[in-house]
Amino acid sequence: MTDILMPALSPTMEEGVLAKWHVKVGDVVSAGDVIAEIETDKATMEVEAVDEGEVTDILVAEGTEGVRVNTPIARLKDEGGAVAPAAKTEEAPKAEAATAKTEAPKASAPAASAPAAPKSDSGERIFSSPLARRIAAQNGLDLKSIKGTGPHGRIVKRDVEGASKGAAQPAASTAPAAATSGIAPRQAQSLAQMGIPDGSYDLIPLDGMKKAVARRMVDSIQNVPHFPLFIDVEIDQLMAVRAKVNKMLEPQGIKVSVNDFVIKAAALALKMVPEANASYTPEGIAMHHNADVSMAVAIDGGLITPIIKKAETKGLAQIATESKDLAKRARERKLKPEEFQGGTFSVSNLGMFGIKQFTSIINEPQGCIMSVGAGEQRPVVKDGQLAVATVMTVTLTCDHRVVDGATGARFLQAFKPLIEDPVAMLA
After folding, report:
1. Where are the beta strands (DSSP E) in 145-276?
2. How far apart, in whole angstroms, are the C-alpha atoms of residue 98 and residue 32?
3. Are 177 and 158 in contact (CB under 8 A)?
4. What is the tens place of the pLDDT at every residue in 369-393?
5. DSSP, residue by residue, 270-309
6. 231: which strand partners?
7. What does the alpha-carbon distance between residue 212 and residue 129 come to, in Å, rounded to a whole number?
8. Would you say 344 and 279 are in contact if contact means Cβ atoms under 8 Å apart?
9. According to the model, what pLDDT value does residue 176 have?
């Protein structure tokens, strides 16, 4: 038999959700066949078989949360029924039974199989994930006494971990992810302890994306010395140029947005002021060769930042095409890890929601993030005379370890004329 292991879909992935099986016991698979779908905190990805054989066991059910990387999730009988030699416990077994469309790190020793699903006193099955059953068995916990917060009341990892710390309480009176989310210790208190009575609210358990976003934002705001710089830019000429460009591109089905102009202008400004295209590391300041601009995209349950790579080398039509495709696949959770991991600078635009001005949290390890507000008509003074212009407020949030006030100001000085006279970006 050959174990199919939970693959690592990114360098930082530790666990995921086994969202869907495309095979069942008795099916014969060939190398390259899609056998399952795995959800991470950012995307849903297909897993392909790399061995041929018959599926003899499905070890992890569909919908199971918190499946650790390199945990056996299914077994194949090799062609001819040969039995694969057992892996030595002191060495990493080969994760060859399944692979995602990204490279996975070396596997560690396989986890012990989970105990069978228990039953309640009335004889009904207690729904729980294999990982939860395994942790409960290791800690001598009775699943009958634990309230599940997973889909349809399934007991999942966080429920058992909470119980193992003496916190097994009904889901409605606890904050299940407090022990693992990395949020301030005060959040570990139940809402009842904070004066909000049980039954007065519905609790939506945190999924992997919410946990990851919470952890990253808390880490960023605690570890990075943020400071904002604000600037107003007039966009009347940009809107006129955009209308002409879109008329030209209409036969190709391409439509350039204001955000596409912002991404292009930011990329060019980063090349003019390379000190702003940098990251802090314990070893030194990393000066990036290209302007890989991450754009914030709101998706169901969280936020993701797909990347326009080498944006300084691309025209507006190409940026518009790529940004539309990336945003669409981001909302469908079909991005590859390399399409949203990395980036040297971020742009977050809430102008379409009517937000005039806001300050974003830095997307580590990037040195800056730009927040773009709505364009609106405002009174301005030109040549000593009162006039009206369409003005957009832009906020640059900087990591002071990398980008000080003077550097941030020089970046905005380079960015402003590109937006106000965008013809230069068409060259």
Report:
1. 226-234
2. 9
3. yes
4. 999 999 999 999 999 999 999 999 9
5. HHHSGGGSEEEETTEEEE-SS--EEE-EEETTEEE--EET
6. 394
7. 21
8. yes
9. 37
Task: Pick the closest to residue 31 from 78, 90, 63 (CA basis).
Answer: 78
Is the predicted pLDDT of residue 171 greater than 60, yes or no?
no
* CA–CA distance, 60 with 373 (Å, rounded to integer): 46
Q: Is the peptide bond before 365 cis (omega within 30 degrees of 0)?
A: yes
The answer to whether 240 and 204 have CB atoms below 8 angstroms apart is: no
d(CA 114, CA 23): 21
58, 32, 57, 56: which is closest to 46 by C-alpha? 32
Reported pTM: 0.63
Say which residue the tokens 């936020």 belong to.
303
The alpha carbon dihedral of 40, 44, 50, 55 has a sign of positive
Q: What is the spatial distance between Cα 176 and Cα 184, in angstroms, rounded to a whole number?
A: 14
d(CA 384, CA 373): 27
Catalytic site residue 226?
no
Helix orientation angle between 258-272 and 405-420, rounded to the nearest 10 degrees: 130
Secondary structure in 3-state letters for 66-92: EEECCCEEEEEEEHHHCCCCCCCCCCC
Dihedral sign for Cα 249, 252, 258, 263, please.
Answer: negative
DSSP 8-class letter at 12? T
To 10 degrees, the CA torsion angle through 52, 56, 62, 65?
Answer: -90
Residue 299 β-bridge partners: 302
Sign of the Cα pseudo-torsion (266, 268, 273, 279, in order):
positive
Instruction: Report the run of H or E that residue 238 belongs to, with start and end.
Output: helix 236-249
pLDDT tens digits for range 270-322: 999 999 999 999 999 999 999 999 999 998 878 899 999 999 999 999 999 99
- 236 in helix, strand or coil? helix
Residue 422 token pair: 């965008």
Angstrom distance (rounded) from CA 136 to CA 114? 10
Distance of alpha carbon 96 from alpha carbon 163, whole angstroms: 35
DSSP 109: P
The tokens describing 51, both together, are 């061995």
Residue 390 bridge partners (DSSP): 377
Residue 162 is encoded by which pair of tokens? 């909470």
**How far is the CA of 99 from the CAs of 104, 125, 130, 269, in angstroms?**
8, 33, 21, 40
